[in-house]
Amino acid sequence: GDVDLSGIIASLPYDDVIVWDNSQRTNLRTSGRYAAFAEARHDVIYVQDDDHILHDHGGLLRAYEPGVITANMSRGWIQAHGYQDCAMVGKGAIMDKTLPAPAIDRYLARFRDGIVFRLWADVVVTILNPVRHVDLETEELPWGYAGNRMNRRPGFRREKRMMLARARQLR
After folding, report:
1. Distance (Å) of CA 67 to CA 45, 138, 161
2. Phi/psi at 134 (5° precision)
3. Nearest-CA neighbor of 24 among 40, 35, 37, 13?
4. What is the pTM assigned to this prediction?
5. What DSSP state is assigned to residue 147?
6. pLDDT tens digits for 16-57?
7. Helix 156-169, helix 100-110: angle, nearest 10
């Protein structure tokens, strides 16, 4: 990618770290994290974006429950964006390796929209699975709101609304 991940990688307490780098592999956008599950050695997987550092991995691990996506999101963020039934996993989440694929397959069987799905795969995966929110502090890295970020794309809010509606239809 276009940012230095060394600080994030150094903060991770896990023995199996896989980075899906869209500049070095097929550009799957945020759905690349789920493609990387196939390479993971463990049955429980931690994911995050490249613009935050979670320091309390112990808190996230203690909140983990099999069959549930445990995602780090503040209550204020959840309320402000209508994410009560889903999660954005960018600030850290832990889940069973088997949870994303059935949700993704279900979505793609109904909708074929390429880049929009690749950008919003987290919505699909978390709406079509049980989610538990935790509120753990993260360190926001300076490039989180750079001009080339997903949240700066033209149509960002429209795409988000569409993906939330589509995934909710599939429940």
Report:
1. 12, 24, 26
2. -125, 160
3. 35
4. 0.92
5. T
6. 999 999 889 999 988 999 999 999 999 999 999 888 999 999
7. 100
